[in-house]
Specification:
Blueprint: H1 6-28, H2 34-49, E1 51-57, E2 64-70, H3 71-81, H4 84-111, H5 122-125
Antiparallel strand pairs: 1-2
Amino acid sequence: MLFEDSMSLLWLSYYGLSLLVLVAVYFALAFLPRLARLLLTWSVAGAMWVPAGYRLPLVEEGEFYTGWAPAAMVSAVAFLEHSANALRGGLLWLMLGVALGACVGIALWWWRRPQFVEESDQGRDVEEDPQPTRRREPVIN
């Protein structure tokens, strides 16, 4: 059940809050053109949503706790602990998430881009008057 397992509730609340952050980022970048806004927004989404595995030592010698966390958090903790192996893995997943997010943003822009319709030559086939007719004022009889 969802409430019995705190880890699934934690992930659910994290993704819910990150969705609110994603919408806020999209609206905050309203001054940018649509392609740049989608590219940046989905890059941030990729950075927030890609998980990475981690391994933490326990108090007992030789025992470790392993789990999954957002790649940005894994990278940040590994940087603070000066752990090169964890930093390498976390940054790899983080860069992959940013790249995939950017690809999704570009794909959304490509899918919803404005379609330019070429002007047809049918309107040009009709000969125009050399002198346009002047507007006549209405007359009451």
